[in-house]
Specification:
Elements (H helix, E strand, L loop, with lengths): L13 H7 L4 H6 L11 H7 L4 H12 L13 H34 L3 H36 L4 H4 L5 H6 L4 H15 L6 H40 L1
Helix pairs in contact: 5-6, 5-10, 6-9, 9-10
Length: 235
């Protein structure tokens, strides 16, 4: 059964949750938690894996239900955990999601080289380039700056003119163009005896879109507020 209607709690058995929503297995990987969870609860597994339970539950619940709201209060020590999670998400998108999407698009263009199909491939290649640039900015500029704030002895990095407000301004809506791509496939690209490949492509795009939306919510609702507090404290 895909998804759960109730909020996931720390006293629930991890195995039961994963059997109800197998997509959450991906989230375990990003926290370096392996399968073979036996009868252990989320709390047990987080403690064994040295993962903050509140952070884990927030992200787990968001992926289970994107409308989930939490009243949890996060601490500055959670920043390293969050950034590690986000970086592993970047790796997953780059090494697994993008190749799968490109493979499905090329499956369509190989069998039918109509201009519409070739346009589809160009559209995604341009989108991928934009996303790669966004990830590079986060990995090479934003995240190192944020981590430097945690190192109180690192005066040179902390005295940079860069602030988290620049990160917020640079935070593009990457999901919007994915929606355009889905609309192209659903509404405008004429049938070409490619229903199976088109369906596989749409499923990949929809899964990626949801994952990316949660990714942005984690940055906006946990990471940015924590860093803003840290900047005020260090100023």
């Amino acid at each position: 059964m895909e998804g759960m209607n109730s909020v996931i709690r720390q006293d629930m058995k991890m195995s039961e949750i994963l059997l109800r929503n197998h997509s959450l297995i991906l989230i375990l990987e990003r926290f370096s938690i392996e399968l073979g969870v036996k009868e252990k609860t989320i709390s047990d597994i987080c403690e064994e894996s040295n993962v903050n339970t509140d952070v884990f539950l927030f992200i787990f619940n968001l992926h289970n239900d994107i409308s989930y709201l939490s009243k949890s209060s996060f601490q500055k020590l959670d920043i390293r955990v969050i950034i590690s999670y986000l970086r592993k998400s970047h790796i997953y998108y780059t090494l697994e999601v993008f190749p799968e999407i490109i493979k499905n698009i090329r499956g369509m263009t190989t069998s039918n080289k109509k201009p519409e199909n070739l346009m589809l491939e160009r559209f995604f290649e341009e989108y991928k380039k934009e996303v790669d640039e966004h990830f590079a900015y986060e990995n090479n500029i934003a995240f190192p700056y944020i981590l430097s704030l945690l190192d109180v002895g690192n005066k040179t990095k902390n005295q940079t003119n860069y602030t988290i407000s620049e990160y917020k301004e640079h935070h593009d809506n990457l999901e919007e163009k994915l929606d355009d791509l889905k609309r192209l496939l659903i509404q405008y690209l004429p049938p070409q005896n490619d229903s199976v490949m088109r369906r596989k492509l749409l499923v990949s795009l929809c899964n990626f879109e949801k994952d990316l939306m949660v990714h942005a919510m984690i940055e906006d609702n946990i990471l940015v507020p924590l860093v803003e507090k840290l900047e005020k404290k260090n100023s």
